[in-house]
């Protein structure tokens, strides 16, 4: 997690990345190392532009409110921008651009194979009361919030971008890719090459996996926005394996009931491991990662945890 991200106060960037294929863990690590930098670079370019607008606004104060900026175009026309709207648009656009440039960089690198390996990503940026989520693949972000009856309930911030989602399936089929499930996994739709039964991805968007990029797989980030209120308590980012065995409601309840904030991520992973072993006793436990971001101003606002197939759970507070 990065706090005061992009030299902006009260700005947090965090994410989880789920690699697949022989070099999936390497690709996930590379994306985690570089994606925040790319997002920050695009963010700073927008902030520099805003500083120019502020300078211009000094000479147009009579046409401004305290929440507006004025842009003077080349032909002398002026246009008023709302700062809140501009901030949201800046965050959304920066995420989309960062994802696009990240995939281009992976395609150019020669240190490891990205042709049939890749990673999903779900990232979140909190700037003040603005919350923006970016997502490719089947990881998920869920908000824990209070409803009108003051009951803690989940609100799903992202969509699981799997091959059988109608819009995703239409694009894949239009590009010549195939979608079908294996006999031993009838409920898991997978993406395949036109003439080969490989690689069988369980997601419709990912970084890398360039063997499928001409056949419907894309790395365009799906983005969502929410303006936070005092009823919003925390956000959980987690890889698909967590959501395979726990509902959104169960995840929110487990995090809320954790003994301490710094153990919330670990409690969630341990519950998922127990559920998996009970539901699928003959199947191996997959890797997973969790980030729990608490939205108030207390110092212990982040809890992370991960589980690897060597049966080791690690957790920490950043």
TrEMBL record:
Matches recorded under InterPro entries: PP2C, PPM-type-like_dom_sf, PPM-type_phosphatase-like_dom
PROSITE patterns: PPM_2
CDD domains in the record: PP2Cc
Top-rank lineage group of the source organism: Eukaryota
Domain PPM-type phosphatase, chain residue ranges per copy: 1-295
TM segment ranges: none
Gene Ontology MF, one: protein serine/threonine phosphatase activity
PANTHER family given in the database record: PROTEIN PHOSPHATASE
UniProt-recorded name of the protein: (rape) hypothetical protein
